[in-house]
Amino acid sequence: MSEKNKSLEALRKEIDGRDSFRPTVSPAVIKRLPRYFRYLRELIRMGKSRVSSAELSKMMNVTASQIRQDLNCFGGFGQQGYGYNVNYLYTKICEILGVGYGFRVAVIGAGNLGSALVRSDMFEKRGVDVVAMFDTKPSVIGKKIGNVPVYSVDVLEEKLREFAVDIVILTLPKEYAVETASRLVHTDVGGIWNFTGKELELGDCGIVVENVHIGDSLMTLCYEVAKSMNEKQTGDK
Questions:
Q1: Residue 174 per-residue DSSP state
Q2: Residue 234 and residue 199: Cα distance in Å, rounded?
Q3: Structure confidence by residue, pLDDT tens digits, 137-148
Q4: Nearest in space to 39 (alpha carbons), one of 70, 15, 17, 12
């Protein structure tokens, strides 16, 4: 095991042994945790030292009861009559979400989407380091996008091991998704953020997959807009 992997494993054991360990909780609660992360970070920027569940409720459009239930899944973190210490709660949410793990990321597909993701600051804000990109086009191989070097997919496995990559982001064409994912099975990659539009399931291989369907989100929005328009037309009659 590399020195980086040894230190990462030690950090994971340390965090998992704290009172913010990861019990089995519902997917709905897990999906709300990044929202707590964002809103608490905003409160810190505002200089707020404490916040009540009622105040968080107004910000997040989630009931105060739901907020208390969510946080109680991990120990609560609040005090009756006081609310929550913002910095303490933010630290605990970061631990639960693995922000302090120092995850390393590689992006496969240096097209428009992959390039836009690499140039964004969301990785740095979440303690994630993008260390490499991969593509098949000679025009981008050997160059840098942002500060991230682009390598040929021919050396994919070699570079993933060299950089001790934990998470791979797939932004390549849909037809190459399964083939590429199968190559990751034989590496130490622990997770895939999949933007290809092809549903991937690799749980049996020990790799966690988050399938992102941007088109689904667009169609959900279209439905809501159409519904709103129909309601307005009905109301005007």
A1: G
A2: 38
A3: 999 999 999 999
A4: 70
